[in-house]
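Workshop exercise sheet. Pairs work together: one partner reads the sequence aloud, the other fills in the structure field after running the prediction. Swap roles for the next sheet.
Pair: D.N. / O.F.
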Amino acid sequence: MDQNKRRRTRINAGFRVVLHKEDFDAFVESQNLSLKGILCGPARGFFVGDECEVSIPLSDDAIIRVSAKVVRSDESGLAADFHHMDEASFTHLRRLVQFNSEDADTIDSELTSPAFDV
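Structure field:
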């Protein structure tokens, strides 16, 4: 997607990520991350349309957990759109994106506009 059409800032970041569906886990590294989704390394066993949980452990006590849908899965990587997270995970994700972005204030201003066409 053209970078200018994105409605959420993406950060380039290599975090450990666990993708979980049913009784299956895949351990990958993130390539980029936003408040709306993630791009990570390839994950065998995950296919476009799959619902999954994305976990990003920040510490023993802080883990970002997000319900997501796989929107791309091929040899170059897996992309997932986020659709549900609890308040604590959202707070951790927002701070993580702010800390790693070039302009932290932009992240808060993005929250005032819809992430999707309505």
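Discussion prompt: Helices lie at 87-100, 104-110. What would you look at next?
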